[in-house]
């Protein structure tokens, strides 16, 4: 399991209902079931990964974030997770709405387009930047909706979502040291990880955030 | 055996329920026979039983040589020691459906004795039955074996309809359901295919209004045509092309050339002789009245009918874990119908897995060698066993 998946798992209360959208090889839901006693299920777009997950006894359906979340009822889950996929969906705002409709919490991770290397490359070369994280040329990338950490926070404010927890994460998935300043995180964080709730449902802020 | 002689019912292992069965149509069947086979051992806690539901023309001989045809069990590659449905671990029950012709009560069974003591077969007088009636007959047998909760119910095609009906009718009697290559209702296209098959049977001069046994014949021609047509729907264009292409059959040299017009329409192409063989083999083991009764039961199948067309309502609050499987080249029960089912299950917040197996073998793929499918079946059952804490 990737390190950032470990960070996601730590955000999830034991014994809860979890939907992992884009569950890949099923590592996270397997972990959540075995070690945290969760009723964890997955949706995955790649049929080979689906078959592999089901063959490992994991409850995974073939489907995708854009088209299949609408078919779940309100409050079906305690957490809905979207890992490193928000930038590749057709309608990110609608996907977030669906996540917070069917789940009480949304956990979203995405690669940060505000990272200093990207800014610098675009400024100096005038070409679409390519880095270890953003490694596909513009004409082939599935990442059609890249955003920065500040963009995402602005969208959450616009939609009235409450950011219960956020962190910057490096490419290996290790938690990055930028914990207090969003501007610093937006400049130096390669990935971002957010725990959201619906408007007015945030608990009182804790020390660690 | 003469292929046109009425079939011998034979002696199949069965249980008789003298209290009969109340059918959905309102008729009471005075006595009920359920023919079945079991494999493996029922655990002391009686928690390892799996019911396998057979498809339309299948039967209870799922994992052993068929006593009449001498062919291997229809799912022997899936069910057995060390197989994906492992008889070393699970206790398997497979029953001939109500309305069938392999030992369970059906149109070929004898009517309960009339006043004059005359013995007569049901034939076309057999009451119309539904998929739910089939499942309720199976339920009686399962309970009679002392099983209060099934580990799983598994089946493909019409077997998958029974799996869904089990899950809707007895949701607390099973942990898991595996509906394969099936749909939550029979489509207009599938009803249409069934109707062509039925009309072929009715058009046979040997049909005799459904009382063909009184004339010591069976409507072999009509039944064979029905089977040939249905068989095409079980395959795919790719599979037919791969198996036969446009290859022409090599006639033996010494065969007397018939009239030109007959030669023109004889079984010139390999695909034709294949279908003819399938048709003629079928009439030796299947009863025409069963064919009619069971196709009608399929046509009436619609899980949402009781819920004003709202399929998710049929699964509301279900505790059953589902694994839905479709096959990419299946056009009889296409992936879209499985996806429709999966979305309804999601709407009911059911625990569901859904896999579409990539294959060019069409609807029949669930009976054939598909390694991804085998892994899915094995993995799903193991996962459920893990969750349930089954040893």
Automatic annotation (TrEMBL), chain A:
- Name of this protein: Methionine biosynthesis protein MetW
Q: Could you read off the lineage of the organism from its UniProt record?
A: Bacteria, Pseudomonadati, Pseudomonadota, Alphaproteobacteria, Acetobacterales
From TrEMBL, chain B:
Assign the protein's first listed, main location to one coarse class.
cytoplasm
**Matches recorded under Pfam families:** Abhydrolase_1
Name the InterPro entries on file.
AB_hydrolase_1, AB_hydrolase_fold, HAT_MetX-like
Q: What class of enzyme is it?
A: transferase
| Catalytic residues (UniProt) | 157 (nucleophile), 330, 363
Which keywords does this Swiss-Prot/TrEMBL entry list? Acyltransferase, Amino-acid biosynthesis, Cytoplasm, Methionine biosynthesis, Transferase
Residues where substrate binds: 227, 364
- Write out the catalysed reaction: L-homoserine + acetyl-CoA = O-acetyl-L-homoserine + CoA
| Pathway this chain belongs to | Amino-acid biosynthesis; L-methionine biosynthesis via de novo pathway; O-acetyl-L-homoserine from L-homoserine: step 1/1
Enzyme Commission number, as recorded? 2.3.1.31
Q: Where in the cell is it found?
A: Cytoplasm
Q: Which residues form the AB hydrolase-1 domain?
A: 48-368
Q: How does it assemble?
A: Homodimer.
What family does the Swiss-Prot or TrEMBL record give for this protein?
Belongs to the AB hydrolase superfamily. MetX family.
Which purpose does this protein serve, as stated in its record? Transfers an acetyl group from acetyl-CoA to L-homoserine, forming acetyl-L-homoserine.
Q: Which HAMAP family match?
A: MetX_acyltransf (MF_00296)
Recorded protein name is: Homoserine O-acetyltransferase
What taxonomic lineage is listed for the species of origin? Bacteria, Pseudomonadati, Pseudomonadota, Alphaproteobacteria, Acetobacterales
